[in-house]
Design goal:
Layout (H helix, E strand, L loop, with lengths): L4 H30 L9 H10 L3 H12 L3 H12 L3 H13 L28 E7 L2 E7 L4 H12 L3 H10 L5 H9 L4
Antiparallel strand pairs: 1-2
Length: 190
């Protein structure tokens, strides 16, 4: 009976600690949301939009290139230096930008006129990765001129039998050679 006293006391102390921590957390979040003078924390999407607005076009492109390469620390450092915010705010901003990719939006006075040509390559603020594999062979195309819609058109061309047209479209929207594009398209037939 005496051997059970110590484990029971430890269990009670741990339970009390968890209860106190939960109550403190609930009180803290309730206080933040009920304070009239404080603003509520931004959602991830709002944070991503605000963070993207603080970057120049070159910084924006470099940041998304680092995110696409999986270099989170370098991306945080870049944002930290570019935006001049604190380290924690930079970490949160880069996380939000990774979760909710934002296109670069120049200031309203500098926006160029839109071209309605669907076939002309357009650069996006993020890098798109397309991967095709068959057996042991895997090919990857990474480009900021691709997106889901364009890649879908390329796949449709390939599946309909127009492999040369698909390869040409892929080279137009990426920085790969026609030979590499043909190898990639050959792997797409499912």
């Amino acid at each position: 009976m005496e051997s059970l006293v110590i484990p029971v006391v430890i269990l009670v102390v741990v339970g009390a600690g968890v209860l106190l921590a939960t109550r403190a957390w609930n009180r803290r979040t309730r206080h933040a949301s009920n304070s009239a003078g404080q603003t509520l924390p931004m959602t991830q999407l709002e944070l991503a939009r605000a963070a993207a607005a603080k970057l120049t076009e070159d910084e924006h492109r470099r940041l998304y290139a680092l995110i696409a390469q999986g270099q989170a620390m370098a991306a945080i450092k870049l944002y930290y230096e570019a935006a001049g915010e604190g380290l924690r705010a930079s970490r949160d901003a880069v996380g939000a930008l990774a979760a909710h990719p934002q296109p670069f939006r120049p200031p309203a006075a500098e926006q160029p006129p839109r071209d309605d040509d669907d076939d002309a390559p357009q650069r996006f603020a993020y890098r798109y990765r397309a991967i095709a594999s068959k057996g042991d062979v895997t090919r990857e195309v990474s480009s900021n001129m691709l997106n889901d819609e364009i890649y879908g058109r390329i796949r449709t061309l390939a599946k309909s039998g127009d492999t040369e047209g698909a390869a040409l479209a892929l080279t137009r929207h990426s920085d790969i050679t026609i030979k590499q594009a043909r190898e990639f398209i050959d792997l797409l037939d499912d």
